[in-house]
Amino acid sequence: MEDLVSVPLNDENSEHAVQIVSNLADEIREQFVIFLRRNADVFAWTPADMPEIDIEVMEHPLTVDSRHRSIKEKMRYHAPKRQKAIVEEVDKLLKVGLIREVNYPT
């Protein structure tokens, strides 16, 4: 595992940062950071930054063999802090339309 250093891509928002290896030569690191900053618009920091992604890239089918009986999985419980983070992330994805709720028969 190499040591990483955080490089902000935008001076206005320090949360928009990437990590690069720390042992790059100064000249290479400088060129690399310039390249990353010049292309910072290709990074998706939130789900809302990806509204035009083709569904073929994101969607995957569930290959279910009809010869097998469906099995209902038991309910999974998470710590309250983790559950809150899960709910927030799902709400973000639902809000921007990257995921949708699907109802299956019991």
Short description:
The protein has 106 residues and is α+β, with helices and mostly antiparallel strands. 31% of the residues lie in helices and 9% in strands. It has two domains: 4-42, no CATH class; 47-65 and 74-106, no CATH class.
- Going across the biggest sheet, name each strand in turn: 1-2
Strand content: 5-15%
Morphology: elongated
- How many domain units? 2
Q: How many beta-strand segments?
A: 2
Main sheet: strands, sense, barrel: 2 strands, antiparallel
Average pLDDT taken over every residue: 84
Helix amount: 25-40%
What sequence of helices (H) and strands (E) makes up the elements? EEHHH
Unreliable spans are none
Can you offer a commentary on this structure?
With about 110 residues, the chain is an alpha+beta fold. The chain has 2 domains: about 5-40, no CATH class; about 45-65 and about 75-105, no CATH class. The chain has helices at about 25-40, 55-60, 80-95; strands at about 5-10, 15-20. A two-stranded antiparallel sheet has the order 1-2. A hairpin with an 8-residue loop joins β1 and β2. The N and C termini lie far apart (about 45 Å).
